Amino acid sequence: MQLQKVKKVGKVSDESIQRLLSNFRKQEELTIQMKDAFGWCLAVDVVLIIITIITALFSVVVFLVHNEINAAVSFGMPLILHVIILFELFNAGYGFESECRKSAVLLKDIPTKELGRGSRTQILMQQAMLLSQPFGVTPGSFYHANRRTLTGIASAINTYVIVLVQFHNEESITGTNQQI
């Protein structure tokens, strides 16, 4: 909001720039603290959720193949819950990254002609840092928690379940042939 006022006036003071840069430093510090505190925990949680989704999805498919609707529904409810949790986690990460990108773009738009050399240098350094390595949610520094990762996980789960179902079908066919 302050930046919109600055754009209207067209002038910016060194004091307001220092406040803005202080806010960016706080944002960076909070991001680092969040990564340190929740990184490994979030990474392990996501892996456990993915394993649960695969297990529940496979169970639902197997029970539907054998026309056991009640069992499929009982495995389907936790499946839906875990998918929603995973989606919300990654959606929050995506929102965080997009807000940080907006901050970097806003830094580009600051009129720096009337600023001192020190403030101008600090703005350029902060802008370069935000554009080269934007803040993001990276659990355990293994991956970025955003929508792109979520679609990758969904496609991997889909492929894995298809392979499991194919092996399950082959086992049931060979088991039937051996009984005959």
From TrEMBL:
The chain crosses the membrane at residues 37-65, 71-92. Keywords: Cell membrane, Membrane, Receptor, Transducer, Transmembrane, Transmembrane helix. It is found in: Cell membrane. This is Uncharacterized protein. Pfam families: 7tm_7. It is a multi-pass membrane protein.
